[in-house]
Amino acid sequence: MRNLFPYSYLIISLCFTIIINAQESQLSTRDFQQHFDQAKKLSRANLYSESIEELTKSIKLAQLNYLEKEEIQATIFLAETLRKTRDYDKGAALLLRLKNTEKYPLEHVKKLGRLAAIYHESSFDDRQQTVDSVSKYINLGLEFADSYDFEIEKALLKNEFGHLIGGSDALPYHLEAAQLFLKNNDRHNYVGAMTKVLNIYQNTIHDHDKADSIIQILLKETGGKNWHTAEVELFNIIAYQYILKSGDSLNYFKWKDKANKSLIKYSAAIGSERLDNFRVQQETLNFQNEAINAQLALTQQEIRTRNLFIYLSILIVIILSIAILFYRELILRNKLKVMNQQLETANKQYQMLMIESNHRIKNNLQMVISMFEFAETTPNVNDLTVIKRMSRKIQTISALHKHLYADVHNEKVSLEIYFNEIIKLYSDLSTTHFIISHQFENAEIRSQRIVYFGLIFNEMLSNTMEHSKAAAKQAHIEISKDNEIFTFYYKDNSPWDLNYKEGTGSVLIRQLVERVGGFDFLFDPKNGQFNFSFHV
């Protein structure tokens, strides 16, 4: 589960990043399109400087947001606008700097067509150089247009090439362009191409019958439409047709008048567009305000989205951390439960083993005691004394194991209970009257250590029985406590032999006291008094 945590966090972060980038991309594309559409409106109103300003903003937006195709579209339109303002060098430089246009075939063909138009209108001093340069870009554009079946673009390039070469040689190019425009229902460009065909038949080839038939077609196409510039050109050609054909000045002035009226209508339309400039400028201002508001809204949305991402990330981290901790705690609890069960099983086995061991030790010690009791039938007095001393020591140890067996194994044993067992044992073994008084401050001592206290007490009682000369033997034992220090006190009021040399019973007692960690050991042979201190 811990291994899944970094991957979960990575997937969540990736999802949020994709969502944020998608939102930003949509907003950036929308902003670009708003500036681009506004530039087109301004261009149609002949407000070229304002249009160029909007196009520049569009291009910057596209570059900042890596909108390559949109950047190419805006740059081509900017170059066309510069051509209209006769800034040919800047327009050509912009188009020549455009890279990767081949990735977008339609935009690439448009770029080549605009380059051809710019070089044609800029007119080099050398006529042949102009033809060569324009032909180069038109031929490249036609190759792409044919490859991708861009018929409108092909028609525009054909028309441009016919306009370039002029004369009767241009006729097939204008005718092919006209047919392509008509096929694609582009009536306005169809009229423009056929007007050029009409001009060739009338002024170059002088085929007036063919010219008359074309005039009828064009009059029908322009009727009822507000194509004023097309009407001006067409009406002027018809007027000259009457002069060239029959010298009919009446019809000449009639059609000239129509041409002038169409020109006036065109001027009125231009004037109307000029009057609309204020509205367009106001729309531009409104658009700019909308753009500012949109940018502000975008910034606020980005802040909210990032904050949401941070909060959700923190929440997910907290939830996953809690889940990991809970999972680890569950594992530890299960391990602890298994360990406790194993310890409980081991403890039960250990207790059974200790019970069995204490029981067998007690039985074995009883067998040894029985053997010593059997040996007491020997007549040797010295041997009998030794046997009795050994028997009492063994019985002291046996009493402890009997106590351990009865209590079903405790880690600590009560000193008071153990000493009372020894006192009872000596009272039963003594052939003479033996009084043992006692006062115990109970202490709980570990079982492996308390056996040495039993041997100390046994050695003191044995010495009293052997060395006391009183008819009625008596001894007093006391265990007292001061703070955390216990004091062992024993006295039997029987003076030891003045010739006694320390080295037998007292030395053994001193060694046993050291074994239990006793300190401040004192022995007074005048009245058989022992005392020492110890810690539990």
From TrEMBL:
Keywords: ATP-binding, Kinase, Membrane, Nucleotide-binding, Phosphoprotein, Transferase, Transmembrane, Transmembrane helix
Enzyme Commission identifier(s): 2.7.13.3
Single GO molecular function: ATP binding
Highest taxon of the lineage: Bacteria
Chain ranges passing through the membrane: 308-327
Residues annotated as domain Signal transduction histidine kinase subgroup 2 dimerisation and phosphoacceptor: 356-424
Enzyme class label: transferase
InterPro entries: HATPase_C_sf, Sig_transdc_His_kin_sub2_dim/P
Catalytic activity: ATP + protein L-histidine = ADP + protein N-phospho-L-histidine
Cited PANTHER family: ETHYLENE RESPONSE SENSOR PROTEIN, TWO-COMPONENT SYSTEM SENSOR PROTEIN
Protein name: histidine kinase
Protein's organism: Roseivirga echinicomitans
Taxonomy of the source species: Bacteria, Pseudomonadati, Bacteroidota, Cytophagia, Cytophagales
